[in-house]
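quick one before i forget lol
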Amino acid sequence: MVMIDHTKTEKFLDKATENLRTVSNLIKAGEIRMKNNALEMDAGIIFKTIYGDKATVTIAEYPKQGGRTPAHCHKASKEFLICITGQISVTFGKNYRVLKPGDCISLDKSIHHSCTALEDNSRLIAICVPEDEDYKRSMNGPEISHHES
């Protein structure tokens, strides 16, 4: 017999619902759009995301040099960025680092950051791992906040 932890299932569904509301609001605002079952920003950047109970994994594809994600932070999660192809400049606070294939950077929660492709066809993997207490609090609101730079 399989036992189902309904409390964990309900929390997961609540968070997934909130993530969908956030994405829906960004789509309505015209900041991102759906294309081939992925999210696409105006700069042509494509995000393919898997939402899990313990982490969120996104592959970000930057088809053109200069493609940039806007400055933002993750209020409840630590984020790991791993360059797969090309080169990507990651700006965080007043610092920046250029990632080449295989390079990784770790960003603590609430660190404002943005990514800019330095070459055509650059890609990275972004892994967001929630920190327990903050993750529980974030269940009541969207995890991502945008910051103008």
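fyi The first helix runs from residue 6 to 28.
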